[in-house]
Design a protein that fits this description.
- This protein is mostly beta strands.
- The protein is built from no helices and 20 strands.
Length: 271
């Protein structure tokens, strides 16, 4: 059994990340396909592993995911660059998963989730940035939230702006789509959090909706975030695909092109 999660195309090659079920261990194994006609590349020899995202830059491929920890019962977030594992973050986390990666200006960016060692408590968002000896690791929480989950990121090299899209749980359990706007000077300095944009929040007329953001893309001054919304508390809730469009520091407006048709947008690309 295979599950294909996300693809990246460059020139005549297509890269697809996902995972399969090992016949030997009956556990998941992170895989990468380069063109559909080729056999998948097994990225990890650990008992369990999953690949969540792939990005290709400067002739190398980067795969974000996780694998089981040799030291404890948890998972370890990793980037596989051309098949070589790069461990992320700190070892003291029991759940530690890279969900997406992005490469620009020599930097490798990854976002995901972490939760404390030996704990099933709140989950924090995580951001990793690496380049040579530079190794930046930040975690993100939202006041009153028990779960923060960044799903995707984008770095605007010219404007030094870093975007991270995802969602978090409100104090009453509603999932709120969110966009983190940050600056990163790409000179080895740190990341500055500018603002957290609540794409659907308790202050708006859509407070009765669950909403999740899964992808972000920037073209010029325009920022696009793809995801879905769902009626909260209704007897038969259904997903409705949504795309938010806005600008740095400004407002973001949601559109639902499919109207009431059950659907989800999981990725966005604009040209």
């Amino acid at each position: 059994m295979y599950r294909l999660i996300i693809l990246f195309a460059i020139a005549s090659e297509i890269y697809v990340a996902g995972y399969g079920r090992s016949s030997a261990t009956n556990q998941s194994c992170a895989l990468l396909w380069i063109d559909a006609v080729n056999e998948p590349i097994a990225l990890s020899s650990y008992l369990r592993s999953i690949a969540n995202s792939v990005y290709v830059a400067d002739g190398s491929y980067y795969v974000a995911g996780w694998r089981s920890s040799a030291a404890s019962r948890g998972e370890r977030g990793v980037i596989w660059k051309d098949g070589v594992e790069i461990p992320l973050g700190q070892q003291q986390y029991t759940r530690h998963e890279a969900l997406s990666c992005f490469v620009a200006d020599g930097y490798t960016f990854a976002c995901g989730v972490v939760s404390p060692y030996n704990s099933d408590g709140p989950m924090s968002g995580a951001l990793w940035i690496t380049k040579g000896a530079i190794d930046i690791y930040n975690t993100y929480t939202v006041s009153g939230s028990s779960s923060v989950r960044p799903e995707a990121l984008y770095y605007d090299v010219l404007k030094k702006r870093l975007y991270m899209a995802g969602h978090y749980a409100s104090s009453d359990g509603v999932s709120i789509a969110a966009l983190w706007e940050m600056t990163f000077p790409n000179d080895g300095g740190g990341v500055t959090m500018e603002r957290l944009v609540r794409l659907s929040s308790e202050e708006t007329e859509e407070s009765w909706l669950h909403a999740n953001a899964y992808s972000v893309y920037v073209l010029g001054d325009d920022v696009y975030v793809a995801g879905q919304i769902q009626a909260y508390g209704s007897r038969y809730p259904q997903d409705e695909a949504a795309i938010w469009k806005g600008v740095w520091g400004g407002t973001y407006t949601a559109a639902k092109p499919n109207d009431k048709t059950p659907s989800v947008y999981e990725s966005v690309f604009v040209k």
